[in-house]
Design brief:
Blueprint (H helix, E strand, L loop, with lengths): L1 H22 L3 E7 L8 E3 L2 E3 L1 H12 L3 E7 L1 H10 L4 E6 L8 E2 L5 E12 L19 E5 L6 H4 L5 E6 L2 H9 L5 E5 H11 L5 E3 L6 E9 L5 H15 L2 H9 L8
Parallel strand pairs: 1-4, 1-5, 8-9, 8-10
Antiparallel strand pairs: 2-3, 5-12, 6-12, 7-10, 7-11, 7-12
Length: 259
């Protein structure tokens, strides 16, 4: 009996921090960046919706936690996470720098993001690009401040980058008035916003695109949410394997292999 009691106590002690962490939280404040990330995060009729939102809310409901999403410029949102003013942030790519202030659990992985270069049709004939970014040295490249894309671009100090745009819409507007020659941003998002702005016919997308990068629901280390991140990851995994998640994907026209 003693060995059984010892095993039971060990299991209880291992699980207690997780249970205590989630039990202490009634509402989870999740910040996100401004802009549209269709079909994962977007506004429709003034309502924030998308695969990410539905998945996160389903997992939180299973844990008896309410979710409050708030939208800010990316730099402010990340600073809120660093300072513990938010519990988590959505759609964040994992880097060594970000792991200093955020918990990234594989179970909390959200959608893949693929960044790429784009330009105006009038400018395209002057641009030579076959995948070697040194070919883009003669051009100024617009980029959203505070964002990361993929390592080769982020570390390309030889490129002339203009990081003054706060979101994709401003990035596109600046491209239209020739503040720079090229833009760099998530391609699916740019295409969606360009269609909303009715300028999609004016754009050319340069191939090849960058590698697909996974994004996460990352939790704040400043709030000591390590156990909560693990519990949320487990719950998200359960939801992803359920018919409920298949219904979410179907709702937004997403194939299971694309998420």
């Amino acid at each position: 009996m003693h060995w059984r009691l010892a095993i039971w106590l060990s299991l209880f002690l291992l699980s207690a921090p997780v249970a205590a962490d989630s039990a202490a939280i009634k509402t989870l404040l999740i910040v996100r960046a401004e802009g549209f990330f269709p079909p994962h995060e977007m506004l429709q009729n003034g309502q924030l919706m998308g695969v990410n939102m539905d998945l996160i809310e389903a997992a939180a409901a299973s844990m008896h936690i309410k979710v409050l999403f708030e939208t800010y410029p990316w730099v402010r949102a990340t600073n809120m996470l660093k300072k513990g003013q938010a519990d988590a942030i959505t759609y964040m790519g994992k880097t060594a720098e970000r792991e200093d202030y955020a918990y990234f659990e594989e179970g909390n992985r959200l959608a893949l993001v693929q960044n790429g270069f784009f330009t105006l049709k009038q400018t395209a004939p002057t641009v030579i690009y076959s995948g070697d970014m040194r070919q883009l040295q003669p051009h100024t490249i617009g980029f959203i401040r505070g964002r990361r894309s993929f390592p080769d671009f982020d570390q390309a100090t030889f490129l002339n980058k203009n990081e003054s745009a706060k979101d994709e819409e401003q990035l596109l507007n600046m491209l239209l008035v020739r503040r720079f020659d090229l833009g760099m941003a998530p391609i699916a998002r740019v295409k969606y916003i360009a269609m909303q702005m009715k300028i999609d016919e004016q754009l050319v997308y340069l191939q090849p695109f960058g590698p697909a990068v996974p994004t996460y629901l990352a939790f704040a280390k400043a709030k000591g949410h390590g156990a909560l991140a693990k519990e949320f990851a487990h719950t998200m995994g359960v939801i992803k394997r359920s018919p409920q998640f298949q219904d979410i994907l179907k709702k937004y026209g997403v194939k299971p292999g694309d998420y």
